[in-house]
Amino acid sequence: MTSSTAPKPIHVTEQDKIRLQKLISAAQRENDFRDDLSSLSAELVRATVVDSAKIPKDVVTMNTRVTLIDLDTSERLTFVLVFPEYANPDEGRFSILAPIGSGVLGYRTGDEFEWEVPAGKRRFKVARVSRQPEASGRTRP
Questions:
Q1: Burial profile 105-119: b = 16 or more Cβ within 10 angstroms, e = fewer
Q2: In 10 A of CB 20, how many CB atoms?
Q3: Closest CA relative to residue 70, chosen from 12, 106, 120
Q4: Is residue 93 within 8 Å of 82, Cβ to Cβ?
């Protein structure tokens, strides 16, 4: 996270943390540890781990549909946060390794955050979490 103030707490499910740590470990084994993985790793270190059944329904988890508002432009961006192998920006599926993907993980509706994206530092607000697998009792393998 790139912010001059202390970042808000974030929450991740135990299942998501395990899968994301495996993704990071695989890259390290292949000597492919990039900035995107470094950012994700830092977010996982500071995250509070919550059981999937107990995660609040307005928290952005993997496979969640989220709407963000860019606080500088007022533009809205809606996407599903997915693992890299399922990413397809044209279909609204953004990778956790995309700058905005690792930036939004664990935040709740109403939270504001700053994140470094290719165009520079941007400020976002989580406007809506409209579909979270855990809220409907679904979890992923």
A1: bbbbbebebbbbeee
A2: 23
A3: 120
A4: yes
- Structure tokens that stand for 13 in this block: 């499910």
**pTM (2 d.p.):** 0.85
User: For residue 53, which phi and psi values (nearest 5 degrees)?
Assistant: -75, -15
Helix extents (H) in the chain: 14-29, 35-46, 99-104
Query: How far, rounded to the nearest angstrom, does the alpha carbon of residue 59 sit from its chain's CA centroid?
Result: 10
CATH topology for the 11-134 domain? Chitinase A; domain 3 (3.10.50)
Residue corresponding to tokens 């695989």: 26
Sign, CA torsion 60/65/69/73 = positive
Tens digits of residue pLDDT in 25-78 = 887 777 665 667 888 888 999 999 999 889 999 999 999 999 999 999 999 999
Using alpha carbons only, how large is the chain's radius of gyration in Å?
A: 14
